Amino acid sequence: MSLFDEATLRKLEQLTLVADRVRVGVMKGDRRSRKRGSSVEFADYRNYVQGDDLRRLDWNIYARLERPFIKLLEEEEDLAVHLLLDCSGSMAWPPDDPETHKLSYGLRLAGALGHIGLSGGDLVQVVLLQGDSSRRWGPFRGRQNSLRLFQFLESATAAGPTNLNLTLRQYAQRARRPGLIFILSDLFSPDGYQDGLNALQSRGYEVGLIHILSPDEVAPEAGGDLKLVDVETGRQTEISLDQATLALYRERLQSWQTEIAAHCRRRQIHYIPVVTDLAWDKLILQTIRAAGVVK
Q: Is the pLDDT of residue 178 over 80?
């Protein structure tokens, strides 16, 4: 799977990730501010991180202390960006339609957001959430790392269950550098998601929740007597789908998403519901832009 062509990458490089509510004190650093009138006067030092521009290394400090430090300039911002992609079994849907496949959609979205961050000098980390065997990439900084990010994402598969509450709480507890965090998931987690989001916020993260559903999950076209099989647990349920049942399903789905949106609004979380028949680039350029985390 090839995630992007060169024209798309150039378009993404014109964008910037924005965090308005990240805890004070974690944003000074290496990303060039796009604010008018920004200064290039020396301000401070920070430790070197893989991917930093070696031209910013202070070789005199290195010669004295034998430790690499990067020179910071006034009005420069360094944002830590965390991308957590749900790779549970329910994300491998629909199995026979690559155009609306939830995991494929999430991978492209994670790749796009990651490339925007890397191109802007942000410190980017990506985690594939899959049960107890989550896989990590980063943190890295710099556009030169985008290819490795795409290769990492292309290796992803979806299988098994993911306990979002537990996984997000554990991630929050291990936090060394809170920042802007995106969770990309269908939210099909029996134990819920709210406690995990709250834990991330309590550690200083600004949270974006991208809720990914496929068209046939939003508006099922099936009917008649069916046996439904949970792709994560294997549990089976027999059901008769008629127009009344489908109407009730749509009503409960709407109620569920309204509840999520209300929780996120109370907690100042960016809630972005998306159906995978929406072009992912339109999602970034319009929907996520309107949420204020991309400009």
A: yes
- Architecture, CATH, for domain 6-14+79-291: 3-Layer(aba) Sandwich (3.40)
CA–CA gap between residue 131 and residue 134 (Å, rounded): 7
CA atoms in the 13 A half-sphere facing the CB of 83? 27
pLDDT band at 35 (very low <50, low <70, confident <90, very high): very low
Name the 3-class secondary structure at 171. Answer: helix
Asked whether the predicted pLDDT for residue 36 surpasses 50, the reply is no
How many beta carbons lie within 10 A of that of residue 165, not counting itself? 18
Domain boundaries for CATH 3.40.50.410 within the chain: 6-14+79-291
Q: Around Cβ 87, how many Cβ atoms within 10 Å?
A: 27
Among 82, 113, 110, 106, which Cα is nearest to 13's?
113
Degrees to nearest 5, angle at CA 150 with 146 and 155:
150
| Token representation of residue 134 | 């989550």
Does the model's pTM come out above 0.85? no
